[in-house]
Write a structure and sequence with these properties.
0% strand
Length: 74
């Protein structure tokens, strides 16, 4: 017998939210590595700044998608 909670855990919405959460975590980890390197060297290259900016844009995109999903289910 499948419990309702198990079905909800495998719903497309929950799966998509998990994927978004994982991607945001990965992006955050990369930004943290950039920040660590900048703090260690006390300077940031153009590539570091560009990577951090692009990471922020990707996080924004994922958070927007997450909000769309949450708005749809509520």
């Amino acid at each position: 017998m499948i419990h309702e909670e198990d079905v909800e855990d495998e719903s497309p919405t929950v799966v998509e939210l998990r994927r978004i959460r994982t991607e945001i975590w990965r992006i955050g980890h990369n930004v943290n590595q950039i920040a660590h390197n900048v703090n260690r060297d006390m300077n940031a290259s153009i590539e570091d700044e560009s990577s951090a900016y692009q990471a922020g844009k990707r996080i924004e995109k994922h958070l927007d998608r997450q909000q769309q999903i949450l708005d749809h289910v509520s």
